[in-house]
User: What shape does this take?
Amino acid sequence: MQDGIVKLASGFECGDLSQWQNMAEKALRGADFDTLERTSEDGIKRGPLFTQAPQTHFDKAHTPHLAGRPWHICAMIDHPDIVGANHDILNALKGGASALSLIIDPSGLCGIALRSIADIERLLSGVYETLIPIHITPSPNDAAAALFAAYFKDNTDVQNIHLSLGYVPGPKDNDTLMSIAAWTHDNAPHWKAVCINGAALHEDGASAAQELAFMAAQLVSYLRVLLEKYDIDTALSMIDVRLAADQDAHFNIVKFRAAQLIWAQIAREFDAKNTAMSLHVISSMRMMAKEDPWANLLRLNAACFGAVCGRAGTITLLPFTHIGGETVPDLAAPFAHRLSRNIQLLQMEESHLGHVEDPACGSYTHESLTHNLAAKSWNIFQNIEARGGWFKAFDWFFKTVKKMEKQRNAKIENGEILRVGINQFVKADVRKTKTIPRPKIKPRTGNIIEARNFEQAIKQAKNGCLSPLIGGR
Assistant: This one.
């Protein structure tokens, strides 16, 4: 087959950077070339011209996808009422979703008021769990994880059930982390025991480089604990990562490729055989416009494009009416949930974005920016390590994040950064969107899951104990 391939570029000399710049300056007709230059908020130059950069090659994590899909279309479920949440789940699966992101909040204020095994049975009624991977809200509270582990523990088909427990350990939770790791290793080694929730830091105001530095710092902090008992490949297999996608489609591609590059570098430093990263991308909440939520559909499309081309295995797009802030947002209507699924279905089934494994590979722009962002993130990560690791550097790091957020907000206020529907093309007569008020959930009483050891917490869950009233986003 290759004998008939014609190399069209043969015989042509490649132009150097100065030649390309001269051509660009002619097109500018006297304007300064510097007017084309842009810089990211991390100080990374974004062009306009790039030269060839080393190509990045990294493995993609194997994720069991429904019917051979290139990525999982993950539905966000946050209805406080169990029956309402089950209704949303079944609608999402009938409408094209292939995975579930369950926002668990036992109080019912911000998510599903799930507190017992009986609640899980009602929540998943009519769901074929062996086909639908489930992701639990990342949380420092392991009670929800214990409930789901107790519910699936005796399932004869547990090896075909895929669950991300979403546990986010704190600085004093090493024993709990090890007990969760031990249980999953012995009972469901294909589950994800712990989560690195970079998306949460993004919502707190972090830049792309800061989000990836956080990911690297947390990864190393988890590994230092897990490697006391497990080999590096086993430890890495227990961890999944959540990162946020905003409206900058091409820089999202760069960010997610840089994330995989950093993960692979750390994995190689520990002599891992498998350097693939389990990546779950969720659309940014801080990018969403409140006054003109219809403009959010543009941003969600761009976020999805970047996540797909950045090789995410699972993608969650929030409904276009899901606005963050100081108040808890109303529930999205079925129409908004359907659009979040359809954006992905269109990009998957009509645009065929998943047909190319790594479309940015070889692109001078994306390869250069991938390496530059990874280097910037790595420098911040090394600074964290020099300060004693993630938990000791937390206060310093969070101050730098809030400083970045303040600078960004000021640029949006003065128009230096433009956002459609926020400070650009703002309409005075925006058509109202439909949302659903959150129902209030009656509190329940009973014995509480309080064991720090995961095996003991599972036993308490089996005995009918309730999750404590903590959780939420």
Summary: The CA atoms of residues 51 and 364 lie 6 Å apart.
